[in-house]
Amino acid sequence: MPLPEPAWDDRGLVAAVVQDADTGVVLMLAWMNAEAWQLTRTSGEVHFYSRSRGALWKKGETSGNVLRVVELRVDCDDDAILVKARPAGPTCHTGRTACFFHTESGDDDGAPSAHVVDKLEQVLHARRDASAEKSYTRSLLAAGMPKILAKIAEEHGELAAELPEGARDKVVHETADLLFHMMVGLVARDIPVAEVWRELGRRFGTSGHVEKAARARRATRPLPDGSDGTDGSDGGPGA
């Protein structure tokens, strides 16, 4: 079913809220007219109408911090637009991640985490980049991947021991420990957790059996040298 035409106000405008498609963070609010709406839909990059300048503008036209459209929604009264987008850089003209940075406790980055995992990622990056600060996270990152992998293996074993019949709070505790150390590993590799969310999103609507079979086909696809890309092992421990 096609999107309805927005119900333009008497100025020919409608409010457009922009949300990060991966984190859920609300990035900004601006206005669109019919031309901005059409360009946003056809170009795949978000366009707005400036009330102060009386002119059309593309987000990131000068800064390069464009917003790439992932999904467009129109609300129940057709008088507001939700744009789910992937930002190419900070969205706010101040250089902050998002425009909503004024809080009762003072200004921040403008990006309230939509999920505790995203907030954890921010904290882990801060620990990594704070060279003068001593912390458990920093010591793990400084020790390198062998130490991080050892901790992941340790926490995996502890969760596996509790999961079948362990107390509920122990299962929750060990799961949190494993997730934390997996996140440290992602930060060490500089892989945003948003990429994991995108991969999980890609799998929606796909049978687990189909997904596993597709991965197996990719793994055994012939290489340019004619080999099948395997070493004859079953891919289990020690392979």
Query: Can you say what the CATH homologous superfamily of the domain at 14-87 is?
Result: Phosphoribosyl-AMP cyclohydrolase
Give the percentage of residues in beta strands: 15-25%
By DSSP (H or I, 4+ residues per run), the number of helices equals: 7
Low-confidence stretches: 229-239
Cα radius of gyration in angstroms:
23 Å
- Total beta strands: 6
**CATH fold descriptor of the domain at 14-87:** Ubiquitin-like (UB roll)
CATH architecture assignment of the domain at 14-87: Roll
The chain-level structural class is alpha+beta
Q: Would you give an account of this structure?
A:
The chain has 239 residues and is an alpha+beta fold. Among the domains are: 14-87, Ubiquitin-like (UB roll); 116-189, Orthogonal Bundle (Helix Hairpins), CATH 1.10.287.1080. Helix content is 39%, strand content 16%. The strands form 2 sheets. It has a 4-stranded mixed sheet with strand order 2-1-6-5, covered by helices on one side. A hairpin with a 5-residue loop joins strand 1 (14-20) and strand 2 (26-32). Helix 2 packs across helix 5 (168-189) and helix 4 (145-162) packs antiparallel against helix 5. The longest helix is centred in the last third of the chain and has 22 residues, at 168-189. The protein is globular, with a radius of gyration of 23 Å. The N and C termini lie far apart (49 Å).
